[in-house]
Amino acid sequence: MTSPTIQALLSELGVQLADYQGDAIHSISPIDGKPLASLRADSASEVQARIAKAHAAYLQWRSVPAPRRGELVRLFGEELRTHKAALGQLVTMEAGKILQEGLGEVQEMIDICDFAVGLSRQLYGLTIASERPGHRMMEQWHPVGVVGVISAFNFPVAVWAWNAALALVCGDSVVWKPSEKTPLTAIATHALFMKAVSRFGSDAPAGLAELIIGGRDSGAQMVEDKRIALVSATGSTRMGKQVAEVCARRLTRSILELGGNNAMIVAPSADLEMAVRAITFSAVGTAGQRCTTLRRLFVHDSVYDTLVPRLKKIYAGLPVGNPLEKSTLVGPLIDAGSYDAMQSSLAVAKSEQGQVFGGERVAVTGCEAAYYVRPSLVEMPTQTTSMHHETFAPIMYIVRYSDLDQAIDWNNEVPQGLSSSIFTTDMREAERFVSATGSDCGIANVNIGPSGAEIGGAFGGEKDTGGGRESGSDAWKAYMRRTTNTFNYSHALPLAQGISFDI
Ligand code: NAD
C-alpha cells in the first residue's frame, strides 16, 4: 500500500512508481510510523548491469565538451527550481525534517547546480616553467570514470547532488546507492534528472546517472566493483571504515564524509543573543540528526549562569511535532533505533553525574507510532569519554571552562573532526581558534554555529570524519585525474636534473 499523498507527490515529480514497487525495501514515515511505500531491491546482477551501463556512458560522456556537460546540469537545476516545493515536501515526509529544512535541502541542490555550471567553464590546469630550454610543462584535468555515491538518510538528496553536479561537469557518470530509509526521495530526484536528460539532446548517453535501490549489500557490492573509479560515501564512521578498507585493497579513490561530534565555545565577550539563536538552531535543527549538529557546548564561567538558564527556557518551549506544520521547529527522530540510542546515551550521562534536562518522548496526536523527543541539554562536570561518541539525536552536552586552551583541547579531543565554532568578539581568540593551534576540524566558524554550511566552501572533516571534501572550492579536483604533460619544441633532448646519457 502506498500512501495517497505520497502517490500524488511522486506523480507530480514524474515518478512511475509501478517500476519500483515490490516487497524488499520499506519506506516508513518518521512522522507517524506508517508505511509510505514498499519497493523492490536491485539484485546483484541488476547492480552489475547498472554499473556496466554507467561505465559505457562515461566512455562517451568524457568526450562531450565540459561547457556542454554544464548545460545538462543547468537543465537539472531548472527542474529542481520548478519542483522545489514537491521535492522539499517529500524530503520532509520521508526523512522527517521540518518543511523549511526540506525546502532548504532542495535549495542546496539548486545552488550546487549553479556552481557546477560555472565550474564547467573553469576546469583549469596550470602551465609550469620547465627547467629545460625549449620545453613547456602543463597540467590537464580529465574525467576519472564512474563515481559511486552512497548516501545517508539525513540528507537524502543534497549529498547526491553535491557529488553528481560536480561529477557530471567533470565528465564522469554516477551510480547512486541512497539510504534504504529514504528510497523515495532518491527515486524522485532520479526522475527529475531524467526530465533534464530528455530536454538535453542525444549527446547525453543512457546510463549517465544510475540509481540502485537496495540495502548495505548493494552498497558493498558497488564499492568492490573495479569499474567504480571513485567512491563517495556519506554515513557513519562504522560504514566509512568498511568502505575505506575495500577501497584501500583495490587502490581506488574515496571521498569519505562520516560522523561528526561538533563543538562550540562561548567565550566571555560573546554576543549572547546571537549565540543563543545559533546554539538552538545548530543543536535541535533536523532533530539533532545532522552530521554538523552541535553536540558539545563549552561555556566560559563568566557567562555560564546567564546563558544556560536561557537555553533551558528555550528548550522547554520548543515546538516539537509534525514537521509539515509551520509552527513546528523540532520534528521526529528517524526511527525507534535512534530513540533507543538517545535514551541509552542519556542514561550513561546520568551515571557520569550529568544533569539531564529534556530528552523525554513527546506524544503527538495521530503519530503515536513515531518517535518525537524534547531535545536535551546535559550539564556535565567535565568532558567524559562517553562524550567522544556521536549519538545521532538531539543531545547537547554543556561543560564550563575557564581557560581557552582547555576548551580548544576539549574541542579537539574527540575522534571526529567535522565542524566547530567559537562565539567571541575578541579578535585574538577568534584568530587563535581558526589557526594551526586552534580547532582541528574541517570546518571552524566564528560567530555562527557549526551547522548549515554553504555550498561554496569545501565541505568535510578530519580524523574519523574521513578526510573527504565535497561541494565548493576546489573539491572538483577529486572527480578528475590530473595528467602532467611535457612538450619539447627544441631540436635537442636535454635530460632533467642535467643527467648526461650519451649513446
Ligand atoms: P549509515 O552508515 O547507517 O548508512 C549510510 C549509507 O551507507 C546507507 O546508504 C547504507 O546502506 C550504506 N552502507 C552501510 N554499510 C555499508 C557498507 N559496508 N558498504 C557500503 N555501503 C554501506 O548512516 P545513516 O544512519 O544513514 O546516517 C547517519 C550517519 O551519517 C551519522 O553518523 C552522520 O554523522 C553521518 N553523516 C555524515 C555526513 C558528512 O558529510 N560528514 C553527512 C550526513 C550524514
Main pleated sheet: 7 strands, mixed
Count all strands and give the number: 21
Estimate what percentage of residues fall within beta strands.
15-25%
Structural class: alpha/beta
Bound molecules: nicotinamide-adenine-dinucleotide
What percent of residues adopt helix (DSSP H or I)? 25-40%
The average pLDDT is 97
| Widest sheet: strand ordering | 12-13-14-11-10-16-17
Rounded to an integer in angstroms, the radius of gyration calculated over CA atoms is 24 Å
Shape estimate:
globular
InterPro entries: Ald_DH/histidinol_DH, Ald_DH_C, Ald_DH_CS_GLU, Ald_DH_N, Aldehyde_DH_dom, ALDH7A1-like
Organism: Undibacterium rugosum
GO molecular function, one term: aldehyde dehydrogenase (NAD+) activity
EC number: 1.2.1.3
What would your notes on this structure say?
- By secondary structure, the chain is α/β, with parallel strands linked by helices.
- Helix content is about 40%, strand content about 20%.
- It has 14 helices and 21 strands.
- It has helices at about 5-10, 45-60, 65-80, 85-95, 100-120, 160-170, 185-200, 215-225, 235-250, 270-285, 300-315, 335-350, 405-415, 425-435, and strands at about 20-30, 35-40, 125-130, 135-145, 145-150, 175, 210, 230-235, 255, 260-265, 295-300, 355, 375-380, 395-400, 415, 420-425, 445, 460, 460-465, 470, 480-490.
- The strands form six sheets. Strands 12-13-14-11-10-16-17 form a seven-stranded mixed β-sheet, with helices on both faces. A five-stranded parallel β-sheet has the order 7-6-5-8-9, with helices on both faces.
- Helix 3 runs antiparallel to helix 5 (about 100-120), helix 3 crosses helix 7 (about 185-200) and helix 4 (about 85-95) crosses helix 5 (about 100-120).
- The longest helix has 21 residues, at about 100-120.
- The chain is globular and about 80 Å long.
- The mean pLDDT is about 95.
- Nicotinamide-adenine-dinucleotide (NAD) binds near residues 154 and 216.
- This is aldehyde dehydrogenase (NAD(+)).
- Its EC number is 1.2.1.3.
- Belongs to the aldehyde dehydrogenase family.
- It holds the Pfam family Aldedh.
- GO terms for molecular function: aldehyde dehydrogenase (NAD+) activity.
